[in-house]
Amino acid sequence: MKTLTPFPTGTNHAPNRESQSSSAVQETIDYEELSDPIQLMKRLKVVDWDFTDEDTGYLSHDIHPYPAKFIPQIPATLISALSVRGDLVLDPFGGSGTTALEAARLGRRAISIDANPLGTLIARVKTSKVDGATLQDLRSIRSALMTRLVNLPNDPQYLIEQFQQDLSEIPNWEKWFPPTSYGELGLLKALIRRLESPVARDICLLALSRIVIRVSFQDSETRYASVPKDIGPGVTIQRFLRSLSLIAERTHETSAQLQYGVLTFLTADTRYLRPVDIEDESIDLVVTSPPYGNANDYHLYHRFRLLWLGHDPKALARVEIGSHLRNQREGAGFDGYMRDISACISVIAKALKPGRYAAVVIGDAIYDGKMYNSSESLIAAANAAGLELIDVITRSIHKTKRSFVSAGRRADKETIVILRKQVRTVTVLLHPPRYRMWSYESLLRVREASTLLGRVSGMNDGELSLTCDPCKATRARRLVFTHTIVQGTRFENSWQRILENGSATETSSRKDPKYVTHGLHAYKGKFYPQLAKGLMNILGTRNGAIVLDPFCGSGTTLLEGYLNGLRTYGCDIHPLAVKIARAKTGILVVDPRLVLESFSILMGKINERGKLFPPKMDELPFHAHEEICHWFPQPVIYKLNWILERIRAASTDAIEDFFEVVLSDILREVSQQDPADLRIRRRKEPLVDANVLGLFTERLTLHMNRLERFWSVRGYSPYRFWESRVQEGDSTQPFVYRKMGLDAGTVDLVLTSPPYATALPYIDTDRLSLLVLFGMNSTARRPVEERITGSREISKSELKKFETEMLDLTSANLPSEIGTFISELYRRNLQAGVGFRRRNLPALLYRFFCDMKASIGICHQLLASGGKAGIVIGDSHTTVGEERLKIPTTHFIRLLAIEAGFEEIDRIAIAVSTENLKHIKNAIRENTALILSKP
Description:
By secondary structure, the chain is α/β, with parallel strands linked by helices.
C-alpha cells in the first residue's frame, strides 16, 4: 500500500508566484487592472523617468542614426503598464520603430506610422526576422563585393558609367560626393536591386543608408555643409561591408526577443489616415512622441540618404510636422504646429478603444524666441477629441538627445501626457465556432463566458450578448467556444480561433483538436484540448497561475496551460507519455531559428541519402535488438537507426525530443503490428520493407508547418508564455512533485483526466516506441506496466496481497462504500466462475482506488487554500454472469476527494466521441468533470 507523506512548507523549491517584467514597471497582466487609472498612475509615478544610467542602445535600437528619438525605456515602461499581452499598440509618429520594437519584445502587436520612408525602413530592419533565404542573399552580396574589391578599376568614372541607372539623381553631385564613393554607391544599389529576399534588400539598403553621410562631403550628421575629404577607391565598399555585418549581427541578436512580433509599418501622414489604414476603435494603446515644434528638420538631416533610397526629400519637407525650415517658409508658428498635432490627436481618438490609454511624450516649443507650453495645448486638443487627462509626468532630456536645430536646444524638459478615451458601456456579441459543437460544449460556452465576462444572454442563432465595461469586454479574447467577438461594426477573432486556424484571418468550419503541437503523436484516451481550456476558464484561473496535472499523459493540460498563460507542471509514470509532453511543450520555447536550422540540416541529410542504408543498429540499445527484430523488417530497422543517428547529430534537448516523437508516431505503420488494433497483434501479411524516410519526412513537414503557423500568430496571444515542467514518475509519490519544485500550498489548480480503471493498455499500446526510443524490452516494460495507475496487469504476489487487503472490511485504506463494492464484486465473480481477467478485476480496482486516494491526497496538500481541482473521469462496466454491472468510478473518486478534505462545488456532464478502432465497444463515452475546492 502506497503511503502519503506530508510536503514541507516555505522551502526554496516553491515556484515564484509573481510575474516580473523586464521594463521599469511591473507588467499589467489583466484587463481589470486597466480600468483603475489611479492605481496605474501610482505605479508609473515611482519610476525614475530620466533613466540616466540605462543603456538606451540595446538590441537593434541604435543600428542607424535618427534624430530626437525617444529612449526605448519610455515606451517599454508605458506599454508594460498600460496594456496587456496581445494588445494592439499604435505609434502614429513611429520614427525609427522604437515603440514597435518594444511592443514586440513585450508580447504586443504594433502599428508604426511615419511620414519619413527612411524611418519605416529602419523600423522594418530593426524588427526583421532573418531566415535562410535572407542569409543566402546576404552571403552572396558579401561574396560579390569581396571579389569586386580585388578587381576595382583605377578610374572611378568606369563605375559611374557602368551603373548609371542606379545612381542617385543628386543635383550638383560633385559638390557632395567624390567620384569614388559616387560610383561605388551605384554599384551597391545595383547589387542590392538584384537580391530576391525582401528582408535582405531592406538590410542592405539600410547598411547603405548608414554610410552615405560618411562617404560624402557633408561635414557631419548635424551640419549640412560641403567639406571635401579624401575617400579612396574601395573605402565605400569596405564601410558598407562593416555596416552590413553590424546590422546583421544586431538584427540576429534582436530577433530572438521578437518571437511574438506581429508588426505593421506604414509610410503615411497621420493627419490623413483612413479607416482602411486603421479601423475606428481598434487600438488598445497609443504610445508616441510627436516631433517637437520648430526643433528638427528630418528631410534635411536625411536628405542624401533619402535620395539614395529613391525618395524625394522635398515631399517629406512638405508634410513634416514641427519642421524648423517649414516654419521659416510658411510662417505658421506655434498655432500652425498645434493645428497639425490636433489633427493627429483626432485620428488617435477615433482609433482608440473606449477606456484605453494614449501616452504622448512632448516637449515645449520655441517660436520667435518665445517658449510655448506644448503639453497644455495638447491636453486641450485631446479633450476636444474625446480624450480625458489622467495625469502628467515630467522628465529631463539628456543633453545628447536635444535638437540639432538651435531653436530646439534650449528645451531641457519634456512631458508625458497620459490620456484615456472616455469610458462607455459597450454591447458585445459572441459568435460560436463555425463547426458543430457537442451539447456539453454549448453549455460550457455559456458558463465560461459568464465566468470571464459576467451575465450573458443567449440569442436564437447561437450568439451570446452582453453589455459591459470595455476593458472587461477584451477578456472575450480568452474564450474557447467563442470564435468571433463583435463590437459595433468591428469583428475580432478570439485567441482560440487564431490558434485553431494558425492565422489571424483564415477561418475553418472543421473542428481541429490537433492545433499547434496537440497532434504531434497519437495517444489513446488523451484529454480533449478545448475541454481542458474551457475548464480552465470556468474555474477562473488567473494569468500566471500554477496548474498541475498529476496524470499528464501526452501533455494536453500542460500545452493548453502554456498556450493560455499558465505555469504548468505535470508528471506521468509512462516514459513515452513524458517524452511526448516534453516535446509538445518544450519545442515552443526554443528559438524558432534553431528549430528551422536543425530541420533544414536533417532534411538535407535525408534528401542526400541514397537507397542503401548501413546495416547498423548502434542507435538501438543492444538488449532490445532481439525484440526489435521480431517486430520490424530488417531494412526498416536500418532506416530507423540511420534516422536516429541523424536526429541525434543535428539537434539537442527539446528539438531532439520533437524529432524523435515524430519518428515514434510512424513506428506502427512501418512495423509488423496491425496499426488499427489497440492490442499488439501482427499483420496478416508481414511487411518486407517500408518507406520510412518518406513517412517521416511527410509527418515532420506537417508538424513544422503547424509550428510555423503558430510562430506567425504568437503576437496575438493575450498571455505571457511560461515554460512547462514535466517529470517522469509515479503520481502517488510525493518526491516526484518535489523534484518539479512544488511544495504544499503552491498550486492554484489541479486539472487532470486520470487513467480509467483497466480501460486502456497504455504500455502495451506503445511498446514499439518504448522499444525503439528507450530500449525497453518486455522485461523492462513489465514493472512499469504493473505500476501504472489503472493498469490491467498485476503480479501474483500483488494479486494475493491486494485480495487479502480488500477482503478485510475493517481496513481503513478505502471508504467503506468502495471496499464493500469491490468485495461484493470479488464474491460474485467467484460464484460465476469467470476467467482470470475478470477474476483479477476486484484486485485491480482496489489497487486503482488506492492509487487515486494517494494522488488525490497529495493534490490536496499541494493546492493553496481556495484552490480548485477539476477531475474528468468516467464510469466503466463489467459483466458478472449475465448482468452488465456499472463500476461507479465517478462517485468513488468523489468519495476519495471528500475524504482528502475537498468540497464538491460542481459537476459537469461530458459526452465524448470515440475513434474507429477494434474493441471500441468497451470505450467510455460518458464522462463527468468533478469540480472540487480546497476550503
